[in-house]
Structure formats: structure tokens, C-alpha cells
Amino acid sequence: MRLARTADLWWKNAVIYCLDVETFFDSDGDGRGDFRGLCQRVDHLHELGVTCLWLMPFYPTPDRDDGYDITDFYGVDRRLGTHGDLVEFLRLARDRGMRVIVDLVVNHTSDQHPWFRAARSSPDSPYRDFYVWRSEPPPDGPSGVVFPDKEDSLWQYDDEAGEYYLHRFYKHQPDLNVASPAVRDEIARVMGFWLELGVSGFRVDAVPFLLETAGALDAGDLPDPHDYLRDLRAFLSRRAGEAVLLGEVNLPYPDLRRFFGDEDGDELTMCFDFPGMQSLYLALARGDAAPLATALRERPAAPKDGHWATFVRNHDELTLDKLSDDERAEVFAAFGPDPAMQLYGRGLRRRLPSMLGGDQARLRLAYSLLFTLPGTPTLFYGEEIGMAENLAAEGRLAVRTPMQWTDGPGGGFSTAAPNQLAGPVVEGAFGPANVNVATQRDDPESLLSWFTGIIRQYRRCPEFAWGTCVILDCPGSSAAFAHRADLDGQTVVAVHNLGKEPITVHLPLAGADRGTRLATLAGAHQATDDLVTGDDGRVELSLDGYGFCWLRVRPPHPGG
Ligand code: GLC
């Protein structure tokens, strides 16, 4: 019984890797990545140890929000390939044992979507009700534009329609009306379509806003929007029992927990841990483990079959909106002091390696936390080689630059001229000359080799993913973060030093007899032999600045 559950709940110890087909690998030299290119690079992902690929939107799009503005939920953008190419890719991924999930962006469509064109053309159109219209914007409607640099209202007057429509994001992204049964049917059809093609679920875009269309406007008349999420999950489970909904829900923990549903987890299978991610950055900025420990203690448990998805970087601005103003200012000062590095007053448009000034030890420390803290590690393409950003690209595109495969022109991403590329390549110290897959692949000391090794080790330690996590006291060192994970009588321990000075900690290991040994699995501490617990059941351990280690607890040798 347990075994079957362990195998079925594949997302619990998955390694998810997010990529945009458009910036991954260009097979035909037109400057844009494509599905055929992705097929040629599937083995890179397989060798890295990734188990699930999350494809950012590849649907037909006017591309005014990097593909999150969609004109056909069933299509493949011609610039990226055909359905045939996509199916070839799905087959290749499956052949390598990797699952694929795709972005489900159904809070809104592009204003070029045929549904919106029809809707705005006449109040009698069957599509009119697919969107949210008002003759006057409601004075007490939802507030808070997502892109404050470009928008100042959630309502846009449309000349053709003679009414205002709701748009939570850009004005060219009208919100769908999920209160409409026809829209709900269509969303189910979209999911059903991609499931038939073999995807293992969806990264669901902007979930609170998706539900809000129903909730905020006519809350009195409408059922609980979470009923709708439950319906979606039930539909998904009927169609594909192994498929997941991985939700983008950037809310404080108590609100966020509701999106998992009841104790059995009948809504989203997984939620990104946005508050935890933000606390990680505060902890890194301060060299102090406390913010991270506090966040983990406050984080509600996911339902038993659900899981948190943890991440260091995603494709958007690195949002720090859940920190206090002072805390955010601290992280800005540490990692993005130049206003050009900041976005929307709430986030950073940098990647971790440049924020850390290329400090390899500190970088590995951060990713070691990612792989040991409870939750499914979710990587953004290029993290495995230490790619940074190009601030010359507009807004969030700074972190969506072409993947760096070689030290050649265009980073080996494409043979097209630089001004034809899907985005500008990173320049300077983190550019392809210094950071690329080809060079790192053959270097056992490279970040890529390190990632490959740490992922292998993570997959060998199901305790981190499945076990009970307990944060251990580290009296005397505020920089130390230590935790243990227990599963079926097996224990692993991870210790991290967030500070730049070396530390020594005396870890309490409840339940461990004197003479219990701890074998090192990853990272390094300063002792040359296995660690052994003393009479007080504690183990003494010294780490370099920004050092970390993973340990497996072994019973004492018989006879002492
Ligand atoms: C989500 C996506 C973001 C996009 C927005 C609108 O927040 O992560 O990239 O712009 O939704 O679809």
C-alpha cells in the first residue's frame, strides 16, 4: 500500500524545471527557440535529473505579455512549431521518464482572441458573457492593478462594445468570466485536450484572480469560488488520476492554504511557496536563519497528498511583496540596490548568481536549502549553470534571456544575428563566454556538475520529500539553519550556514544513542571522519562560511 502511494504521488519528490520553448534552443536559425530545438536538448534535462518539465505558454499569441496573452488555448504558436512537433517532444520526454505540465492561463485571454472579438462586437454575441462587462466601473470593485507601471485601472472602456471590461492584468488581457457555465465548460475542454495529448497536469496561472471574477463582483449571487476549483480538480482527477494542478497563489499563508482545499486536498495539488521564498531571501540578505525558520514554522501543512512547490527564482519579477517595507528595503539593498534592478516597487529583475556577486559557495548554499527544505524544488531554466540577467531587456524579460549552451555567438542558442534573437543574451561576467552548458558539462567542479550530483542525492533521500521535518535548535549561532527529516525509521539531517563566518554547532539529535554516526551525503563539514554523537546525544559540527552538509544517521556500531 505505502509503496504504491509513494510511486503514485510522483510530485512529492519531483524536480520540476520551468522553461520557455521560445528561449531554450532554436533549431532553424530564425532566432526563436522551438519545439524541435527543445527535442534536441531533452537529454540535457534528463542528465541533469529533472523529472518534470513545466512549459511556459507556447500557444498562439500576439506576445504582448510573453505569451501569457493567448488567442487560442488549443493551439501551438506557429513560430514555435506545430502540434506534431509538440507531440514528438512529449513522446521524447516520456521516453526519458520525464513528465510535462503546461501553463493553464485562463484568468484572461488576449484581446485578439476570437471570443473577445465576438464579445465586443455585439451584446447579443454568445461570447459576450465570456467576459466581465459593466456600463460603469463599480466603485467598490476589486482594487489593485498587477502592473502599476502600465495600468491605473482594472476597467477599460471599449468603444466597440460601449461598455467597460475587467482586466486584472494588462488592458489587452480581458478577464474571462468564470461565473459563466459556458466558460467553465470551455476551460474543462482545454484541460481535457492537453491531457489527451499526454501532459501530467497544469501550472495554473493567477489562481486567486481566476476565482475572483466570480467572487468579487456579484458575490451575493454566486457560489463559493472554491467550489469551482474543486470542480476543476475533480474533473482533472476523473480524466487523469496522476495529473496535478500546481497553482500560482501569491498570498499570505492562511489565505494560501485554502487553495489546497480540505484535509484531503480537493483543490490545488500543489501551491508555490511564495512567502517562504521571500523569507529565504531575507535570511540570505541578513546571513541569519531566523526569517527562514519562522516562515517554515508558520507555513501550514499541505494536505497529505498535496505538497508545497519551493523555488529560488521564477520567470517573473522576484516578488518581495509579502515582506514588510523595511525588510524589502533590506533585500533590495543587499541584492538589487540600483533602481534599474527593481520592478513595480515590489520585486527584483535579477537572478541569484549576480545578486550574490557570483559567490559559488553561497549559491550552492541557497540551492542546497532548496533541495532539502520540505516542498518540491522547482527550477527556472539556466539556474543549473548559474545564468544571470540582462538588465537591458525590458521589465521581467531581463531574466528570460536565451539559454546559454556554448561560448559561441548567441550562446549557441541560435545561429541568427543578435538582433534577431528572441531576447538579448546575457552580457559580461555571466555571459556565454563564462557561463554555458558545454564548458560546464565536462568540468566536475562546475555548477552544472554540482546540480547533477545534488539532484541525484536529493532523489536518494526520500526523507526530505516525504518525511517529517523538524527544525533543530542551534544555540549560539544565528546563521545556522539545521533540520532533520524522518521517514520510516530513517533520518537525514541538513545543516546550513547562512553567514560568511565559519560556525560550530552542537546539534541535538533526539532519539539518537551515544555513538550514533552521521555519514556525509553532500556538502562538507570540517571533520574528516563521520560525525558521532556524544553522551549528551548531541553532535558537534563545524562549517565554513556559507558551508552546508547533508548527513545520514546510522545506528551505533554494535558493541560501541
Ligand atoms: C502570471 C504569470 C505572469 C503573467 C501573468 C498574467 O502572474 O506568472 O508572467 O504576466 O500571470 O498572465
Count structural domains.
3
Q: Can you name the CATH architecture of the largest domain?
A: Alpha-Beta Barrel
- Percent helix range: 25-40%
CATH secondary-structure class of the largest domain: Alpha Beta
Identify the overall geometry. globular
Describe it.
With 560 residues, the chain is of the alpha/beta class. It folds into three domains: 3-105 and 181-459, Alpha-Beta Barrel (TIM Barrel), CATH 3.20.20; 114-166, Oligo-1,6-glucosidase, Domain 2 (Oligo-1,6-glucosidase, domain 2, Alpha-Beta Complex); 468-554, Immunoglobulin-like, CATH 2.60.40.1180. Helix content is 29%, strand content 18%. It is built from 17 helices and 22 strands. The protein has helices at residues 2-8, 35-40, 42-48, 83-95, 114-121, 181-196, 207-217, 225-239, 253-257, 274-286, 290-298, 325-335, 352-355, 360-372, 437-441, 447-460, 462-466; strands at residues 16-19, 52-55, 99-104, 133-134, 155-158, 163-166, 201-204, 244-247, 270-272, 307-311, 318-319, 342-343, 347-348, 376-380, 468-472, 480-487, 490-497, 503-508, 517-523, 531-532, 538-543, 548-554. The protein has an eight-stranded parallel beta barrel, surrounded by four helices. A six-stranded antiparallel β-sheet has the order 15-16-17-22-19-20. The longest helix has 16 residues, at 181-196. The two termini are 37 Å apart. The model has no long low-confidence stretch (mean pLDDT 94). The site of alpha-D-glucopyranose has 8 residues, from loops.
